[in-house]
Amino acid sequence: MIKKAVILAAGEGTRLKPFTENAPKAMIPVANKPVLEYVVNALVKSGIHNIVIVVGYKKESILEYFGDGNRFGAEIEYVTQKEQVGTAHALLQAEKYMEEDNFLVLPGDNIVDEKGIIPLIKEKHEMVLLVKKHPQPSKYGVVEIEEGVIKNIMEKPVEAKSNIVSTGIYKLNKKIWEILHDCAKKGIYDLTNVIQEAIRRGHILKAVENEGKWMDIVYPWDLIHVNAKILQEISYSTAGKIEENVVIKGKVCIGEDTVIRSGCYIVGPVVIGKNCEIGPNVCIFPSTSIGDNVTINPFTEIKNSILMEGVSIGSNSLILSSVIGKGCFIGTHFSTISGGSILKIGDEYTEVENIGAFVGDGTIIKSNVVLRPATRIGVECEIEVGNVVGGDIRSRCKVV
Hints:
single chain; about 15% helix
């Protein structure tokens, strides 16, 4: 029986900037919960309560949020990867905590559920990889399987030979530690390459297809799509104050001490956090998540978007298919335009459709500003009155 798991949550997530400038990728909120919380909850529901989390980049946010794990039904220990040089190197940091013959290894930046983990636990083989069919396999490690056994993992091939990809979720045996050390001596720090070496040495790696949830968030626009999917599963709950003449349709979750003012119109699925002030006369449409301590002023419309905690939105604004980072202050008559664009992230070009804007933490946008489709604004920027902005704005810049 598997009793312990390692979660790899040391990475930064550079392709998710600007949202990972102040927090690790694992702590980016989806439906008002950090991605890492979905991983912890999945393990607990699978019967695994002893968890080691490998932290590194901006680790303080993880330690502060999860603590000893008690409020999540877990016992959490932490180990630090001082340099983020690879997933295999991250796993090696947890070796002294893992005395068990077999254990699980999971990425901390993918959303999973217990339906995928439980079959992994029950599989009799010592080494197992959870795999998943994916419509865009070239973005991931493509897996070649013969009679249920993995023969090869090709990382991000130009032309994929199959649509089956690695989820990065493993059941491993203690024999892996020797291979990890041998690979580290050769400067091999990626876990996929270590697993390839294990296969080369004759270890059998069984493939188990994931029938549960597995969603990877690579780019900022993935947040919008994954958020929409997760919100489909929320349950209705109301803990705040709802004034007269408010219309609520569908699944809507409202947090404690939140006030929904008269004349608001909300169509779920929508989740609204604690201590928010919404309205009067605000429209919130499906697939929207609003964090704690958010203020949305009158005659504003929001649809298919994420507003992180501490955001303030001025009156007469329109926010479509966008992500607004923590602590942003946005003036009146603000608009994001949803549409298509071609974006460059690192060396990759990606075509996106029906996407609004992405605004980094602590940015101030003054009145009568319009953001074009796929605009990315860094953290702590300032956009002056009346600007029409497009493209990428670097962090701490001022647009006059």
